[in-house]
Design a protein that fits this description.
Chains A, B: Homodimer. Chains A, B: Residues 11-79 form the HTH gntR-type domain. Chains A, B: It holds the Pfam family GntR. The structure is a homodimer of 493-residue chains. Chain A has 16 helices and 17 strands. In chain A, α2 (39-46) crosses α3, α5 packs across α13 (358-369) and α7 (188-200) runs parallel beside α8 (215-223). Chain A folds into three domains: 13-98, Orthogonal Bundle (Arc Repressor Mutant, subunit A); 119-130 and 374-487, Aspartate Aminotransferase, domain 1 (Alpha-Beta Complex), CATH 3.90.1150.10; 133-371, Type I PLP-dependent aspartate aminotransferase-like (Major domain) (Aspartate Aminotransferase, domain 2, 3-Layer(aba) Sandwich). The relative contact order of chain A is 0.13. In chain A, the strands form five sheets. A seven-stranded mixed β-sheet of chain A has the order 4-12-11-10-9-5-6, sandwiched between helices. Chain A has a four-stranded antiparallel β-sheet with strand order 13-14-17-16. Chain A is globular. Chain A has 493 residues and is of the alpha/beta class. At the A-B interface, α5, α7, α8, α12 and α13 of A face α5, α7, α8, α12 and α13 of B.
């Protein structure tokens, strides 16, 4: 267990250590029943006082995350309520337990499970039947037939030039004027986030992000030893008054935001806030990472110009997911940035994997060159909007009182809240018994999680299973909320 | 400029700082003419004495890497000999210069250039005409036609199960018995190295690796703040007596090795040494990373059993490159490991990119299922061996006295040395004038580089260009070595 302490951050050291250990326990990096270091040895390892460690362990115990056994030591608490199959039982390599790692949190990994044979509300993906597979299959055939050497070629580390040029044109339609020299092709936007984190963030750096936000982004920045400062939102997105104070107190190096149909809440950052956010970043010399996975999927009106579209001084690193709404099997994302920030990210990409596969880059090209693209996006918007309406209607009719949700104006998810004394991690256990999966809200918070939310994807399940799935989910939720009070204030994290 | 100091390493702090700055200058991360911090401010930033910084700057000046200008400060030295086009002239984003990064070295990135329209001896790749593109193109067509949903599906983050099962069978032929549950699919072995580094290595950790070695591996471990300890080799690979001392003095956390046709030297680690290496790792609880990019390409006899094949206690993380000899356009690699080391690497893969594209994983499958695979490998071995013979013959006839090389018994490269008073970085400048590229040996060393070597790839150039290319290269080398002595002891790094 390697714990990074940032002595310059305006966050108390005991809180930093508490969050680090709590994150590991919650995400399963520390397994149930695992031995924790003694107070004395942890204090020595971290160069802190015994009292600080005692306080941390007291808090962990209070939060029901650990237990102390007289004469034996301190252990990660065994929670019988957690499904035994989730635990990693295989372990014949004892020496490995002492190998320290730099992986404080993998919340998203814990929920990134199987896509098959279940009622899948957990992944933010789109039903395969809604995507242009047949068309693309034929186009890939003709592309490879014309130029089979695509299979035997490494593309440039920065990405295929033809793809980057095509993307410039595509982005122009979304009010983004970017040179193909300033585009880097990534393996999905997740790699874009990882590249930014590994290049610019390390222990001692503060990252501000919406709370709640995309769990794998938290995981990635935390793995770099960053301190995360949460940014509360209202209906227009990040509250700028709050961000202003955050800038003054914590001096963040980077702000990570999902301005369009935010993941998980669905909130859109208003045009005015985008301008204010950029101005604050400029004043305080903060890098903005603008993650844009599904802005094309608006149900009402197109979202405002991307922040990158307003950026003239290279403050914004823009990440565009391409494959989610088109070809998930290709895992293509784009990163757009300027100046030395961009050059350093390209160098990092070389260190990371020498460049994305040429096959997947060439595979997605035909769609962008054809008129079919706009048609597809139009149809997809329509289909997702119908699904959203259907699901909201079902929730209205079948969810018990006290359950609330934000009706999304775009994107792939609905953010639901149950009364605050209930814990959706516990609801998830009940759902899994019926083969239903969703993303528990706790995974979407960086520090002390709010536990009474959940993210419900409505776009992945086949059309004919959607209604049945939602009805089942409502039924379980109803039963759960009317169940014995023993499950309230639950200890499951 | 972010400099990581490891106060626990047995390497003097001034040497650590010197190497960090020298690496940045050599790999272009610090550009020529760039301002370095003053002695006072660097000392303050790093919490070290003024005298230490003065010593570092003295050494950097002695090595001709920096220059001090009275009344103005300290600058990265301008070297007129370096090709002006290589410099990054574009820079309108001044504020970005003060953004610290975690990218101390990108030597490989500096040489990972274009593959097109040049005499390319720099990349370790295989000529497209030698790869089974036509066959694979047809197979991909039939795979996608049968199952177009491959395009719209995310595979599991660990990698497609069908591919992992197929790989188990393939590895078995190479004396490796691994479960498909213990295999992770990566974007080439480069990502495997990066995953290991980001999961287990951080500032304060020591990594031992062959000297010289694969430059992008050095870059990746250095980017994690690791201290690199070089391991000298003889004809049988890593010298175990030396490694033993390294283990005692530096207590490395990880040993990175390329046992088969080592990159860049072509040396094979003997069976006996493999056993000794593993035993040393076990005694000292050191992780071994065994990188195996091209063991199938033996010209004489099959290399010994992989170290992973001898490993019963989960000490070895095995990285297998698959695409280089088959389908570079797919960028597929495998990582095999056991126990919690493996589980943590899978969690890291999720944080990094949520998994490799399904399309490329499904694309390479048909070849492994067909008899064609063995035929292809057999033919490829034969073709590369012929090329090697041809190139060695040409070098014998046309290289001037004093130039030596190791005749490889497999792999894709020849390691050449010129007399030690010459610098191959300078030879590279001469070669580039004729559009010839090779990898300068200096990139392959982690600390103070030996400058009189180079890596010559003999497998990428089309057959009909190979002879002409080598002859041109010999001619330039001859002229270079007979040129004015001013270029000896050259300052170009």
């Amino acid at each position: 267990m390697k714990i990074e302490i940032n002595r310059n951050a305006n966050i108390p050291i005991n809180q930093q250590i508490y969050e680090n250990i709590a994150d590991r326990i919650r995400s399963g990096a520390l397994s149930e029943g695992e031995h924790l270091p003694s107070v004395r040895s942890l204090a020595k390892q971290l160069g802190i006082s015994l009292l600080t460690v005692v306080r941390v362990y007291d808090l962990l115990e209070e939060k029901d995350l650990i237990e102390r056994v007289q004469g034996k030591g301190t252990f990660v608490k065994n929670k019988l309520l957690i499904d035994a199959t989730e635990r990693n039982v295989k372990n014949n390599f004892d020496w490995q337990l002492s190998v320290l790692d730099y992986l404080p949190r993998t919340q998203f990994g814990a929920h990134y499970g199987s896509f098959e044979n279940c009622i899948q509300f957990s992944v933010a993906a789109i039903c395969p039947s809604l995507l242009p597979n047949r068309y693309l299959e034929r186009e890939i055939h003709s592309t490879l037939k014309k130029n089979p050497n695509i299979l035997s070629s490494y593309g440039p580390a920065q990405g295929d030039e033809e793809l980057r040029k095509t993307m410039c044109k595509y982005l122009r339609k979304h009010n983004l004027y970017i040179n193909h020299q300033d585009i880097l092709v990534t393996n999905g936007t997740q790699q874009g986030i990882d590249l930014v984190a590994k290049t610019f963030i390390g222990p001692g750096d503060v990252v501000a992000m919406e709370a709640p936000t995309y769990p794998a982004a938290i995981d990635t920045f935390r793995a770099r030893g960053a301190t995360i400062v949460p940014l509360p939102m209202d209906n227009d997105g990040i509250r700028i008054d709050h961000l202003q104070r955050v800038c003054e107190i914590y001096k963040p190096k980077l702000i990570y935001t999902i301005p369009n149909f935010q993941n998980p809440t669905g909130i859109v950052l208003s045009r005015k806030r985008r301008e204010q956010l950029l101005m604050l970043a400029q004043e305080n010399q903060i890098i903005i990472v603008e993650d844009d996975p599904w802005s094309e999927m608006f149900f009402d009106k197109k979202p405002p110009t991307p922040i990158k579209g307003l950026d003239t001084n290279g403050f914004v690193i823009y990440l565009k997911g391409l494959s989610k709404t088109l070809v998930p099997g290709c895992r293509i994302g784009l990163l757009a940035a300027n100046g030395t920030l961009f050059n350093r990210l390209v160098a990092s990409k070389v260190n990371t994997d020498l460049g994305s596969p040429l096959l997947t880059q060439k595979a997605i090209l035909p769609l962008f060159h054809s008129k079919r693209m706009e048609d597809h996006m139009e149809k997809l918007r329509f289909a997702l909007n119908l699904r959203k309406d259907k699901v909201v209607k079902l929730l209205n009719s079948h969810m018990p009182d006290g359950v609330h949700w934000i009706v999304p104006t775009g994107g792939l998810n609905i953010w639901l809240s149950v009364p605050s004394e209930w814990n959706t991690n516990h609801l998830l256990i009940e759902c899994k018994k019926e083969n239903i999966f969703f993303l528990p809200g706790s995974a979407c918070f960086s520090g002390e999680p709010e536990k009474h939310h959940l993210r419900l994807n409505f776009t992945y399940l086949p059309d004919n299973e959607l209604e049945m799935g939602i009805l089942k989910f409502c039924k379980i939720t109803k039963k759960f909320l009317s169940s014995n009070r023993q499950f309230r204030h639950s200890s499951i994290n």
